[in-house]
Predict the 3D structure of the following.
Amino acid sequence: MKITNQIKNLLLDKMNILKTPGKDDLCLVGPVNLPVKQGDFSAVFQWYTWLQLEGDGNENEDVLESLSSANLAFGQQSSVLVYGDFEKAEDALVRMHSICHTGDIFGSQRCDCGYQLHQSMEMIVEAGTGAIFYLADHEGRGIGLFTKSLAYLLQQEGFDTVEANNALGFEDDTRSYEGAITVLKALREKPVTLITNNPKKLAALKEHGLTAKNHLPLWGGLTETNSFYLDTKIKKSGHIPQEDPTLIV
């Protein structure tokens, strides 16, 4: 079914083709007003999502016409929640959050991902401006949901997170942030403060062009079932330890 001119007129000005020499184009869509409520917390974010396109020279109209045959429900697309005057504010918090199907959706206590996601939202609203990038191809540090379930089975047998990924033939961390950084540059040129406990992640993002002047740690959500996971992050993945363990809740 062909998309009508009326629909195109409503959508085309909300679509932006991001071009990087030598790389596939990205189509950024938004902003969409997204009211969010989690318990006592509520805020209205501006929601964007993006799609990696094949090759370059793509146009917004081509993207619209291809949607019905693209089978996008069988792939994964990332998005970003923006709060406040993200473009012009002197400082802004940014969280590069890797999707965690089990922690973010089901509330799994095997990790602290759900806690970090929701706490980052509150931190950004309290700070006045910021953005949470929700990176859909990062499940299990890049190994995918199905493989993550196999890694969890190994963890139940005593493997830590790094050992389980290695045993399945993967590096500890295979995540890429190039698309997210491209989108960030399109939304804001000024430096940001990254919400992360991992200075190696900040350094890696800077190598790929992230303009960040600092990072802000985020600890919490400790339970009996994820303490081994969090300890592995510190010992094997370079995360900064919580200065005062009594502050971890």
The radius of gyration is 19 Å. The first helix runs from residue 5 to 11.
